[in-house]
Design a protein that fits this description.
This protein has 234 residues and is α+β, with helices and mostly antiparallel strands. The chain has helices at residues 5-19, 57-67, 73-79, 102-113, 173-185, 202-216, 222-226, and strands at 24-25, 46-47, 51-52, 82-83, 92-94, 123-129, 136-140, 152-155, 166-170. It folds into two domains: 5-37 and 49-184, SMI1/KNR4-like (3-Layer(aba) Sandwich); 186-234, no CATH class.
Length: 234
């Protein structure tokens, strides 16, 4: 496992947000250490900046006791790298990782959703599905891999008590970060293909990037990722 994978993703995602000047949040209680005084606020939207994570091994152990199992190593690297409000939001929107508030936010996310999950499941939510606003994105502890990693799934509130209630997203946390790193580093948003308005040179690029993305995690559901545009080979 590449221990720097999660940190490279965070760096790329922050660079992407900065390039588009979208690092602001309507949070009057934003920790002072996370306020970016070099950027102007916009109305109630306060400029923020990432800061080194304050997450300790003891904090991680507290969460793992709550969850009843160990978190994937690459996700622990992620938690211990930077505090943030937003990152890239394609497929996964991570729970805000705010200094002084992050652990309770993750614990509350778990406690709030656990009663709604199927009986006997071992799902650990850490973010939210973005394309459909279906529900939380989770690690599936019940399907843990030999190396300790876990598949990433999402719970779809519109399909409760059906086979579509729990749907696969990535084959592992490691593959998730590989895919998200690719998205963060890509110069264009390749998921939405507009046949009527996209430039003739842009559509082939989007198809090429989408095909490259799908090859990163072959076990990820292709139909989920291609629903928002056209087939990568169209």
């Amino acid at each position: 496992m590449d221990a720097s994978l999660a940190t490279r993703y965070v760096d790329a995602a922050i660079a992407n947000l900065r390039a588009h000047d979208i690092m602001r949040m309507p949070d009057p209680a934003m920790p002072m250490a996370m306020r970016d005084v070099d950027l102007p606020n916009r109305d109630d939207w306060v400029a923020w900046k990432p800061i080194p994570s304050t997450v300790t091994p003891s904090d991680v152990a507290d969460l793992e006791r709550l969850y009843g199992g160990m978190l994937p190593t690459v996700y622990v690297d992620f938690l211990q790298y930077q505090h943030f409000y937003d990152l890239t939001e394609r497929g996964v929107r991570f729970e805000c990782h705010i200094a002084g508030k992050w652990k309770e936010r993750l614990a509350s996310l778990y406690r709030n959703y656990k009663p709604h999950f199927p009986a006997g499941s071992q799902l650990v939510p850490f973010g939210h599905e973005t394309f459909m606003d279906a529900g939380p994105v989770c690690f599936d502890f019940a399907a843990r891999l030999p190396d300790g990693d876990c598949p990433v799934v999402f719970w779809d509130h519109e399909w409760i008590n059906t086979k579509k209630e729990i749907r696969p997203l990535f084959s592992s946390a490691t593959k998730m970060f590989e895919c998200l790193l690719f998205i963060a580093q890509c110069p264009i948003d390749f998921f939405y293909h507009h046949l009527d308005s996209d430039d003739d040179n842009v559509l082939p690029q989007k198809r090429r990037f989408l095909s490259q993305f799908l090859r990163i995690d072959p076990a990820s559901p292709i139909d989920y990722w291609t629903t928002w545009g056209v087939s990568p080979d169209a």
